[in-house]
Amino acid sequence: MFGKGRFVGIISSIIAVVVAILVGMVFALISGGNIIDTFKAIYMGSFGTQMGLASTINNAVPLIFTGLAVALPFRAGLFNIGGAGQMYMGAIGAVLIGLYVNLPSVIEIPLAVALGALFGMMWGILPGYLKAKFGVHEVINTIMMNYISIYFVRYLVSNGPLNGVMGTARTVVIHKSAFFPILWNYPIKPVSISIVVAVILCAFYYWLLESTKIGFEIKAVGYNPKAAEYSGISVNKNIITAMALGGIAAGLAGACFTLGEMHFVSNDFPVEMAFTGIAVSLLGRNNPYGVIPAAFLFAALQASNLQLQLFAHVPKDVVNIIQGVVIMFVALDRLITYLLTRRKGGAKGIGNT
Amino acid sequence: MHAVELKGITKRFERVVANDDVNVEVQEGEIHAIVGENGAGKSTLMKVLYGYYQKDSGIIRIFGKEIEDMTPHKAISLGIGMVHQEFMLIPPLKVVENIILGSEPRRGIFIDEKKAKDEVSKLTQQMGFDIDLNAETGTLPVGIQQKIEILKILYRGAKILILDEPTAVLTPQEVDELFNILKNLKKTGKTVILITHKLQEVMAVSDRVTVMKTGKVVGKRLTKETSPEELAEMMVGRKVLLKVEKPPRNKGKKIVEVKELWVKDELRGIEVVKGVSFDVHEGEIVGIAGVAGNGQTELVEALSGMRKVEKGNILIDGMDMANRTPKEVRLSGVAHIPEDRKGMGLVMDYTMAENITIGRHDMAPFSKGIVMDKTYMLNKGKELAESFDIRPPEPTLEVKFFSGGNQQKIIVAREFDCKPKFLIASQPTRGLDIGAIEYVYRYLLKAREEGKAILLVSMELEEVLSLSDRLLVMFNGEIVGNFDSQQGFDISLIGNLMMQGKVF
Lengths: 353, 504
What we know:
By secondary structure, chain A is mostly helical. In chain A, 73% of the residues lie in helices and 1% in strands. In chain B, helix 14 (404-417) packs parallel to helix 15.
């Protein structure tokens, strides 16, 4: 059931991106590049070459997951900053199976994915429970949970039981039977089935939100917790459900990255992926399908870093500037929405109440 | 001379013509009421006058001078001031600070506080207001806040005051006080434009009336030459029953029995409902009258499962529903039209169909397994839109786009469609226009005839008096009076009980 609001939402996301690119171009010019070369470099680095395309896809996968990890709780009115910690736990869940279980791929892979999702879910449920039961603000407790899991995992892989290579801070490589099958065997950057898992999860979450009573309750709680409670929906239960769904997505980010790309877990497991997920979710308007183009946009910008420096002679910071401006404008969403609706007079202007 | 002259004003919003060739003339020094139902275009017209909206065509003349491209800034400098439905005050600031805000007397770069205080207290005395200028604005009652809004406008030198539905938030006593203020303003030569849909108010305070309906002016009258009935007919476009005609009651078995109910306000740590007992039978309306804040809200919340019960029982058809969840209470056959329509009754960002579903979304036929049946929801929305005359009849439109009256219809439709045994209606007509009020009354009476037990809680004494079969008066958390319509209601006795809790 689409309403008027959604249309305005998509437009303001597009405006944010366009403005951000314009601002990025200004910086490209200032730093001595030219616009055509910059565009060309971004295009070649992201979609225009096989190498670019492969890295864009690989960059996008974790962002889709971490975007969902923010988007789902957001629909219940919660801000899940805990994607990083949930992702670390997911990686550990997956790597445990990959290291210690040796079964045929058809069993081992689903098992590893499931344990990763489960670990991520637990790490989402805990702050959800604290919020529901004691009213601890989820932003605070998810940040704290991040520290706990990040340092716990670092301990596990450096001095702890999972350390695989003396003198390094990483596990050994998981069993081959736990490797994700490869969809497109591009050298250096093979693309695994992670992308399929990510897109399936988007579709599943979209269905969950839009077509089931679970989503109906989550959204009602997000829009108006008092009205939800009044109509018999348990706000606490839905806070926990939404955090669990977010945790599963973040857990899968860690699991799929481990099983599909790294094949081990190390000390410097990329935490930024989780934080970029916040921007992805915002730009995708917290919609599970909106997360996909948003993730690809950020992934493409990251992928074109190298080309920008080599061929357009533009510092890669231009990409960061574009990202920053996108986030800023999406955060200014209300302003843009206001300007859009005001220009048209706004349906709200009619009537007295 | 005309203080305000609006000629041929037309204002369109996308699909809707909110003002269609509107002509209004307001004489200098009069109280001019503009009446009409919600959505008739009154507020839009005033926003055009004040420069919030740009007119599509037409002429605005202020004191005879034509004004092109009105802006709020120009309006203020021309001496137009507006008191909005929602106050534009900053709660943590002192009263005096709020009044001078935007036109502060300065000394260099500093605010001349002494001058400000002197000017404001002079103005306050002139108006005969008793307000502590140093009080924190947010802590004051709404009636006082409204006075502050008026002072603020006068401080800016307004000659024309526009008040948009000023009485919606006031108690009856505060309404009387406001009317005295308006009459005093008139005596000092100010022009007042009063936007309202309450006809008693028009009759009580205005000199002339302009009636609007669906964006057009449908009538202009001198107040002394018209009647509420005539105005209502013009507003609604048909004859309206201003008096309730109630068939004799057909009292059935006892459905609700509340025994020695105690409810505590956890925030303030005091008992707010103190040992209340009453019962409600099939086919009767039991009204609860009382001044706001005497425990009615908490009583209703306890009955609907939203608030903890300290002690006592709430028997619904023999089952004790005290301290059960809202959901369990609903399932036991209780429906509830809540007093806080936007905050509690509706999810404003959900569509009409979704709001009609909420509360029943987890059961067939609204959902099967975990999947919701959207087709059923849409059809249900269409069906209820038709039978309850919800406009526009678009189930996929978010409820925030509906007018207040239609939002209330959506709640009423949902609660009636649940086929309850016991219906709690809390302030069911607050903020509604007469067409919608008549409609709510009709449905309450219909429910009564269908044999439902109904509890009606209202601050509008007129409303409980005319609808109730039995009337309870609540004061300070207790029920201090119990009347039956068969013996007739003694209004002065009820009034005394409401104000003091006892009779002298």
